[in-house]
Amino acid sequence: MKTTSHLFTSSHLGFRTWLESDLEAFSQMNVDPEIMKYFEKPLSIEESQAMMDRMNRMFDDKGYCYFAVDLLATGELLGMIGLGWKTFEAEFTPCVDIGWRIRKEFWNKGFTTEGAKRCLEYAKEIGLQEVLSLASSDNKASIRVMQKIGMDYWLDFDHPDLKKSKHLNPCSLYRIKL
């Protein structure tokens, strides 16, 4: 078990910025077709590294990101859960978004909901007043998490960055006031 300094924790999860040692597990997750079903495409190892780097820069700049999340009991990388800054062109942007992507072996165990709830608490702690979340309208599992963490349905929209991935539109947008 690796010892890591977490920024904050929940009952089972530790949230932190990204480390070089996360790349192998993160990139394996990002090439899995089942995990990436509701994303444009699987990510190469270079794209996974670039995402980790972007998240660390976002944390330095904004105080939040899609955090690397460890299972506290084992120190294993569960995946990512956290907050992002969205600037694509839409009536509701720029905005703070909550999102997640976790390894399959951790699905259906309540970790995503637990982690998302803790990230909403963190968002409130750092002074955010509203958080949105979006997913392909077909992504029932993510939409269930949004509902479980107290978010309300707002609207469906066609994501402008997903025009080439018609199977991902429309997207459902949820929001919560903190």
TrEMBL record:
Family matches, as SUPFAM superfamilies: Acyl-CoA N-acyltransferases (Nat)
Keyword terms: Membrane, Transmembrane, Transmembrane helix
Transmembrane segments: 64-85
UniProt-recorded name of the protein: GNAT family N-acetyltransferase
Pfam family, one: Acetyltransf_3
Source organism: Algoriphagus pacificus
PANTHER family given in the database record: GNAT FAMILY, PUTATIVE (AFU_ORTHOLOGUE AFUA_3G00765)-RELATED-RELATED, N-ACETYLTRANSFERASE DOMAIN-CONTAINING PROTEIN
Record carries keyword Ion transport: no
InterPro entries assigned to the protein according to its UniProt record, in alphabetical order: Acyl_CoA_acyltransferase, GNAT_dom, N-acetyltransferase
Keyword Repeat carried by entry: no
Domain N-acetyltransferase: 13-169
Alphabetical list of PROSITE patterns matching this protein: GNAT
